[in-house]
Amino acid sequence: MKAFEYATAFSTASARDLLADDGAYIAGGNDLLGRLKEYLDSPPRLVNIKAIPGLDSIQHGDDFCTIGSLVTVARLETDPRIRSLFPGLQQAAAEIASPQIRNVATVGGNLAQHSRCWYYRQRDIQCLKKNGDLCYARNSDNRYHSLFSGNDCISPVVSSLGTTFAALDATAVVLSQGRELRWSMAEFYADAWKMHLAHNSLKPGDLILRVEIPLSRPRSAYLQASDKHVFDWALVSCAAAADFVDGKLTSPRVALGSISPVPHQMDKANQFLEGKPLDSDTVAHAADLLLAGAKPLEHNAYKVPMAHALICRTLLKLKG
Amino acid sequence: MRAILVKAEPAPSFVVKEQDGLDPDSPQVWEGSANASTPRTRENGNVDQAFGQCAAVIEGFYTTPVQIHNPMETHGNTVSWTGEGITAWSSTQGISSVRDGLAGALKMDQSKVRVITDFMGGGFGAKFGAGVEGVLAARLSKEAGAPVRLMLTRFDQALAVGNRPSSFQKIKMGALADGTLHAFEMENYGTAGIGAGGDAGGGGGGANIPAPYLYKVDNARVTQRSVAVNAGSARAFRAPGNPPASFGMESAMDDLAVKLGMDPLDFRLKNDPSPIRRKELRLGADKIGWKQKYRPPGTCPGIVKTGLGCAGAAWPAGGGSPFTQGEAQINPDGSIELRLGVQDIGTGTKTVIAVVAAEILGLTPEQITVRVGDTQYPAGPGSGGSTTCASVSPTVNDVCNQALDQLQKLSGMADARGQNWFDACKKLGISPLTVHGRWQKGLSSSHACGVQFAEVAVDTETGLVTVQKVVAVHDCGLIIDQLTLASQINGGVIMGMGYALYEERVMDDLSGVMLNPNFETYKLPGIADVPDIEVVLVNMPERGVIGIGEPSTVPTAGAIANAVANAIGVRVPSLPITPAKVLAALGKVPPSIKS
């Protein structure tokens, strides 16, 4: 990697100042350092945000649980209250990478991480997402790529926390030019759907402060399918959340990861599930609705039946 | 390294896929030479006639990918070039071959080059030569007037230090009604990349594989060729040729057994010419519970289906090198040092030396100081072909017997072993006793066998394969040390499992680059993927010492592939067996939409 300056910020304001026009925030650094080592990015300055007070706490309110952006993935995995409030979030956290990585990886970093597309990450390839002319994946080996996309780039979102937050209808609070923006997960990733250069909707200098999760869905679940049993990216992931009273779903939400540049959600599926019981026909129909319009490419069509199975299983897990 | 400016131009056209290289019009990797070599055919009996006599015939197309050399420690070294000569601390399986390579490349006397390998993190056939990285580090050291450390990155490793060639095996095979294999035909091609490379020491490196492998078929025709592609070249890789051969042939064996309506175990017992392996098949079947658990393919109920499979190994090498030498220095205080110019590549060679010496001298292994990995010690072979154990054991035997003989003469004691040892050594006065010895015939042999059984669970909705258990039955003549032997076999099984389920070099035919030059997408087994491995050892002291490193990785992929086919009732004929391929084999994958 190229040499860089390093500064530690003690407030969000100083973090923004230190960053100037061309720096990069660093917390856990798992994604950023990999990009630096591969020469995908070479910011002249890294601004350590881990000393900013208040960003590493979990706070429980009457209607929301607020998770600071510096909370580690390991904490989401092991915190007993998170496990009982949002079992799906705990399950998603437990599937991320390895214990060593989870110990330093943060919620903010997981949401903001860049594409893992093997063309994007290949130092010798100048693909569309790196301002090149061509999405190689679309025309060549797309086994790990999206079934849905709103632009020519088909690299999928891989943040399993983002997928799970989408199912939980969480809000990300982002400090942008001195103002706090409140984004749904759909909004957080909206730019990646529309624009091939974007990984998410964050602009330079934007800082994720926290994620607010409503407490209205006491049931949640997360499952992923991978080539390996642990320490592997999801080929498809699925999160679901709802309330489940008298054998019927209330406010159900389902989101899928690794099949679209954004957490894949379909209002039609959520609406269909409202008030329904959890049986095999219901979940199979919801899966059909979620996957309607999928455009499998030469090497990733297997994701369709895989996603179908995961949707059914994840929804049925909501029964408890 | 980034400071070095390389001027190069991308080739205007290239070929990276084997199938494309078969096309006579594909861009030539070597100008003026076709990418596909002329097919070579070998035939015995009358194959065409024999197929007509068969009660059952199967045809299959079994393929294996290029497997990249990925030892935990990458290739590299630290080299110091001073007026005294060159000293290289190398990660190598062959200190002597590295010394000779450096001396040759740098025009130095061999006596002026010293290579040291105290410890190393794996080689598997890829680390015999000085390599570009060795010669470069030496030259830089001379220029800099300082030691230079040069270790390859994982990216470099994926591109430049070798791999196991791919195989594309079209097999047609038939058996008589009584289950006797009768006719066999194979056409195989594979790639060794841009060539076998200049560093294929340790055997192999080409794309040909042994066929019909373990079995004798009276009527057999085998046609093979290599296809050059614009990708990293092959190097010897743990049992060159054998894992793909075992996977292809053993898959065909199960497919034919199914067609014949025979139990695949009985079919092997009928056709395997090796009495050792037949014994091992019975032992392994017993351990995994074949009789109780085996059911016809695809008949396991439920979404997650379990299955059983087995496969066999043959390894023609594993014998000792007659050129191995060693020495012992016995000190008056009773301490003893064994020095051999071999290297311990992580297989327990030092332990083997200590165990053999201790037994002869009536001491404990802890009392033996073992020194290896230095070209200043008496020369030994490179660690390839599973040769080291069978090389050092007879050598240490000779050294220690001679040393004991001389110590008894010098001390006047009839038996200097065990409790008499220190008294005898004291009588040496102030001068240590140094004794030189060499490898002796009759204490080692070659040709280890081995069979493995796998039990798997396959999720038919997600395609995920879980290997639940592997029973690995192996022989290697006289067992020297059970713990390091079991460790070798565990490692062989885990590597074979990676070959079966995860590993694959992915070349991109649009850009020509390798897409997975890292552990993120070049997938290797992690601890949660590894099954319960039960090692069953067949001790055969009458055969002498035989190496085990290679045969232990040969049958794993075939056994797992057969277990998967048994579980789901259809064959996944292509390694690695990924969830995507399992779902495709089950007919669950919809057609893609052409863009």
Draw up the topology in text.
The complex is a heterodimer of chains A (320) and B (595).
Chain A: E1 5-8, H1 12-19, E2 24-26, H2 30-37, E3 45-48, E4 58-60, E5 64-68, H3 73-78, H4 80-85, H5 87-95, H6 99-104, H7 107-112, H8 136-139, H9 160-167, E6 171-176, E7 179-184, H10 185-194, E8 207-214, E9 219-225, E10 236-245, E11 248-257, H11 267-273, H12 280-291, H13 303-317
Helix pairs in contact in A: 5-9, 11-12, 12-13
Chain B: H1 18-22, E1 40-44, H2 47-53, E2 56-64, E3 67-68, E4 76-82, E5 85-90, H3 95-106, E6 113-116, H4 131-144, E7 148-151, H5 154-160, E8 163-164, E9 167-175, E10 181-190, E11 219-226, H6 242-260, H7 264-271, H8 275-288, H9 290-293, E12 304-312, E13 325-330, E14 336-340, H10 349-361, E15 368-371, H11 388-411, H12 421-426, E16 433-438, E17 451-459, E18 465-475, H13 482-501, E19 532-538, H14 556-568, H15 579-585
Helix pairs in contact in B: 3-4, 6-14, 10-11, 13-14
Descriptive report:
- The complex is a heterodimer of chains A (320) and B (595).
- Chain A is an alpha+beta fold and 320 residues long.
- Chain A has 13 helices and 11 strands.
- Chain A has a 5-stranded antiparallel beta sheet.
- Chain B is 29% helix and 21% strand.
- Chain B has helices at 18-22, 47-53, 95-106, 131-144, 154-160, 242-260, 264-271, 275-288, 290-293, 349-361, 388-411, 421-426, 482-501, 556-568, 579-585; strands at 40-44, 56-64, 67-68, 76-82, 85-90, 113-116, 148-151, 163-164, 167-175, 181-190, 219-226, 304-312, 325-330, 336-340, 368-371, 433-438, 451-459, 465-475, 532-538.
- In chain B, helix 3 links the parallel strand 5 and strand 6 (113-116).
- In chain B, helix 13 crosses helix 14.
- The longest helix of chain B has 24 residues, at 388-411.
- Mean pLDDT of chain B is 95; it is low at 197-205.
